[in-house]
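Suppose you are handed a protein chain with no further information: no name, no annotation, nothing but its sequence. What can you learn? This example shows the usual starting point.
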Amino acid sequence: MKETIKAIQRKLGVGVDGVIGPETLGAICKVLGVEGTGNEWPTQAEVRSGWSVFGRPGREENLVNIEPPYPLYYEGKKVQTIRVHNLIATAVKQALQEVLDHYGLDEIHRLGLDNYSGSYNYRKTTGGASYSMHAWGIALDFAAETNAYSMHKPQATLSKPECEEWWRIWERHGAVSLGRERDVDWMHLQFARLN
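A reasonable first move is to predict its three-dimensional structure. Written in structure tokens, the prediction is:
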């Protein structure tokens, strides 16, 4: 079956990985004239119930390391790769490339868009009993120091108007911002819908 999916992906001109992720689904929708973008990720509830494409949390075999297209720094140290679920890897790489193309390195640094604060982390939500979206490797945090959970607009730096395109880029790839949806946790984006 995986080889058939790869053949379909080659024919569609999308990334060939043998997995029907958002890019492949979007291309299929386009060819068939079906409404949808392919960026409709499952809800948080679906992810947590195990009835989603992401499987169970903490599954190392579902994770891949990707090299970001521009330098990212974790606690001031340059990171070589970031670890995410294999189904979002292409979307993350494409989004970061679009960020680089739009802002350029100087503006990325000025806005703190190179301040990477983590992705995969097998843990529960802060103060909660449910697993965090980080436990699947489908969430990323940026600029945590200036976008803490309790910071609201306009205090959170990623809520400022010059970051509007940052969020639009991620949203085009199906990511959700808790800051834009709920005005909390502006550092956080995830590839799972809230409802």
